[in-house]
Amino acid sequence: MSDEVRDMIGTALAGEPALGLEFDQVVADGRKRRTRRRAGALTAAAAGIVTVVAAATALSGQPDRTPTRPAGPASTAAPADPGCVLPARSGGYPDDPRGTASAAELRESGRLTEAFRRITLPLPAGVEADPLALCVIRDSWGGSFKLTGDQTIFVYLRSRGGQPPGECVAHPGTQCSARTLPDGSTALVTSTDPTVVDVDVWRADGTYVRLAENRGDGSKPRALGDDALLALATAPELKVELSGPPVPAAPSDRRAAELDAVIATALPAGTTAKPTPGSDRGWRFRISQGGYKAYADLTDTKGTGSALVYLEAPAEGAVTCGNQPNCEPIDLAGGRKGTLTTTQMPEGVTVLALNARAADGTSITLHTSNAAGSGSGGRSRPTPSLTEADLVRIADLPGLHW
C-alpha cells in the first residue's frame, strides 16, 4: 500500500491502535506522551502570556501585578487584570483555541486569574507554585503552572452549558472513580498510572472544571492528592460567571453500546465484519479523539475491504465540498445535505468518503475502501466494501447521532 493510502487511512484512524500493537498499551503510552508534551507546551505558553501581560502593564505606567505564586490574598493595590488569549492552535486543551476573544471573555479571563490568586493551595513544605494566567481558549479558559520539582498542574474551566455529568470510560490500565460531592456536584477521578491524574467536576453552580497533575518523570510523589485536587476544582473562586453555549454530553461507554445496536444491521446482506489487526472491536464503537469510532474489515464474495464510521459532537455549520476535488453534494433524508468524495489512489485503491450532519448537528464521517485494514499491499477486492447507496443508507439511520 502506498504512503498516500496509509496517510489517508491513518488520518481516519487517528487515535486507533497501531498495527500489531495492543490497544491498551497504545492508550497508556500515548496518554503519557501527550500529557508530557502538553506540560511543556502549556507551561511555556502560560509563562509567555504572563510575561507579555506584565510587560504591557509596565508600559502603561502601572506596577507589575504578577505574583510570585498563585495562592494567597489578593492585593487591593493591584490593578484589574486585563486578561489574556491563548494563541490559535495551541495544543493540550479540550477546545481548539481560536486565538481571539471578545471583550467579555477577556474580562472574565482577568477576573478568573485574579480570583485564582485568592485560593490557598495546600502545597507540601518546600513546594512552591509559579503564577497562573487563565486565558481565553474558546468559550473556555485555561492555563498551567509548574510546581517545585518538575510537576505541573493544568486548569481548564468553562460554563457547564447544561452538560450532564460524565461517566467513567473503561480502558484497560485506566482507573476511574465517580463521586457525588456534598453540594450535588459530580466528579470523576481518572488515572492511567501514578504519574498522571485527571479530575473532572460538573459543579452544581453551573461550572465545569478539569484539573490534571503530571509528575514529569514520576520520580517524586504527587504534590496534590485526589482530595486536594477536588477541593481546588470546587473552590468558589473558580465559578465561571460568563454563560456559554449548550454543551453536549461527554462520550460514554453506555452511548457507544447504544450506537453499536444502531449499526449492527447496517451492513449489506452477505457481508461480515471482523476486527482489524491490533483491535478487538470490529464494527463496534469505541471512544476515540473525543468522539465515537467504529472500524472493521468487511468481507463478502468479492473479497475484503474496510469501512469506518466516526461521530463527532454536535456543532453548527453546513457540509460543503469547498475546493476538494472529486467531491459532489448529495441529498440525505430530512432535507439534510452531505458530500461524497471518490478518490483513486495508487495500487488500484479506491476510497469513498461521505460527510454529513445528523439532525442534531452531529458530524458523521463514513469511509470505505477496497483495501483491507492490514495495510499489506494495494487493493484486496475490485471495489470498496460499501457502495454510495450503502453509505447514504447508514448516514440516514435515525439513531446515528450523538
Automatic annotation (TrEMBL):
Q: Could you tell me the superkingdom of the organism this chain comes from?
A: Bacteria
Q: Map out region (Disordered) in residue numbers.
A: 60-101, 366-385
Membrane-spanning residues? 39-59
Q: In which residue ranges is the amino acid composition biased (Low complexity)?
A: 368-385
Keywords, comma-separated and alphabetical: Membrane, Transmembrane, Transmembrane helix
Name the UniProt record assigns to this protein: LigA protein
